[in-house]
Design brief:
Shape: globular
Low-confidence stretches: 309-313
Number of domains: 2
CATH class of the largest domain: Alpha Beta
Number of helices: 14
Largest sheet: 9 strands, mixed
Distance between the termini: 32 Å
Number of strands: 12
Radius of gyration: 19 Å
Structural class: alpha/beta
Order of helices and strands: EHHEEHEHEHEHEEEHEHEHEHHHHH
Length: about 325
């Protein structure tokens, strides 16, 4: 049942080791821990190092969950996960599933579960989303990185320099390789899917049970709650979501907040398409990924100004 008004909380894992292993404040870990401890399952995306794709899978162990942690600026592929989730629930009639994905994926799963009659056995969490980048561009970028060996690990938000200054690196044969040029491509908005610029799921009140993301600007609105190792945002939309968050509180240092203090652009609006998008794709098809990396992956003066402006909102 939908709450009359979305409830807003901030929080971070009280376990510092687990917090450091998370991209933000550990919201995914806190919520998924409840399901795994009860012997239930979690459906989420995990990076497949064999295919260099972010793929949805059903997990039932802490080890599998830990492998799924961490933001990846790569489009996640649902594949047959809806059907697999249904089959798992049919096999284990007393079990439940936590689904974690982007707004469009969460909406699709809710629709499927409602049609198939198992909506009451799932809790659905969506993630505040900037947009889905081209999987083709990423795979070709990854191929460049792998010219000297296979990618062994990957992170886009390592917090060695703090949560506000994340480090994006890949590990190849024990050597760290910077992913900064790819991150700049991602935030240039040139390679996002056209549908992302018209996303209908960017709203404060959503059909999911909980929305999670980074609690940006917490240092301005709630400075006593700021921690440079990450703070997560929790938007609670339903009674079911509230029940889950109440159970997760025991592992969190949490606080109540409001929409004004937690507001960020993609909570209410889809990302605006880049004015150079058409030129970007023309360049890509004419000259390939190496060319667009050099042309659009550099840190220009204009891009620096745009990032500084974005931090203000």
């Amino acid at each position: 049942m939908l709450l009359s008004e979305t409830m807003v909380f901030g929080g971070q894992l009280s376990n510092r080791t687990e917090l450091l292993a998370s991209s933000s404040g550990g919201a995914f870990t806190a919520l998924s821990d409840i399901f795994l401890a009860d012997g239930n399952a979690v459906v989420c995306s995990t990076y497949n190092y064999s295919t260099n794709q972010q793929e949805f899978t059903l997990i039932t162990t802490e080890k599998e969950r830990n492998a799924a942690r961490g933001s990846k600026y790569v489009q996640s592929i649902p594949g047959d996960i809806f059907r697999f989730a249904e089959e798992w629930l049919n096999l284990f009639q007393d079990k439940y599933i936590l689904f974690v994905g982007m707004g469009c994926q969460a909406a699709g799963f809710i629709s499927y579960a409602t049609t198939k009659g198992f909506r009451d056995r799932i809790t659905v969490v969506d993630i505040i989303c900037h947009g889905a980048p081209s999987p083709k561009v990423w795979k070709e970028y990854a191929a460049i990185i792998e010219r000297n060996g296979k990618i062994e690990s990957l992170t886009f938000k390592d917090k060695r320099n703090g949560w506000k200054a994340p480090t994006a690196v890949a590990n190849v044969n024990g050597t760290e390789i910077s992913l900064n040029t790819y991150v700049r491509l991602f935030y240039s908005n040139n390679e996002l899917r056209p549908s992302c610029h018209k996303c209908p799921y960017t709203a404060i009140q959503r059909i999911t049970d909980i929305t999670i993301g980074d609690f940006w600007h917490v240092e301005d609105k709630n400075p006593e709650k700021y921690d440079d190792k990450g703070v997560s945002l929790f938007l609670i939309h339903t009674e079911l979501g509230l029940q889950l968050f109440q159970r997760a509180k025991s592992s969190l240092i949490w606080f109540e907040s409001n929409i004004t203090d937690c507001w960020q652009y993609n909570l209410e609006s889809p990302t605006v398409p880049a004015t150079s998008r058409e030129e970007f794709w023309e360049d890509y098809y004419l000259y390939g990924v190496d060319y667009i990396i050099k042309k659009y992956g550099h840190d220009s003066f204009i891009s620096k100004i745009r990032r500084r402006i974005k931090r203000l909102f």
